[in-house]
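Extended Data, panel c. Modelled sequence:
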Amino acid sequence: MAENRYPQDEFDRLAAQRTVRGTHRRKESTLKWWIALAVILVLAPVAGWAIVQFSSSGGSPSKPTAAHPSSQQTSQVKTSKSEDPSKKPSQSPTASQSPSTTPSSPTPQASLNRPVLVLNGAGIRGVAAEKQKALAAKGFTSVSVSDYNLRSPRVSTVFFPKESDRQTAVEVAKSLGISEQSVQLSPAATGGDRIVAVLKNDIRR
């Protein structure tokens, strides 16, 4: 059978230049294009950020600066350390530390106008009169004398009728040279409201 040939036109020339891939041929992989695209998408923002940082820092890498506390915070810290009244001992003495100055009760004074009776039981003539003068010299205003014949007491003793007369009786004993231990409270021995001094052989003239 004879082949039909037609004169070659421009469509034939275009068809000769075009390469046609059959469906049975293996298609070329596009993975490398996707990888290249992902790299570009990642590197582009990083490169832009680096350019911005470089331009904002004036071309030199920025150095981190240490944060310094403000002057107000520093003064507050110093104040809290130096002014802690709870840790400072109190310098002012409390009321319990102050010495007590309670006045002592005054010593009762001898009553020089109290009546005093001097009894001569020493057997020495004129000794009662001498002691009467000694009491008058101390300021006693009511002093009388008499004799005494009883054995008791054995030593010179001053008797007084009530506790309020104790100091007066002690003063009488000192004026007569009688020991304070020989001053006794004895209303019966006084025979009334007076101080009685009994002189015995131990009395000193």
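The domain at 116-199 is CATH 3.30.70.2390 (Alpha-Beta Plaits). This feature is highlighted in the accompanying rendering.
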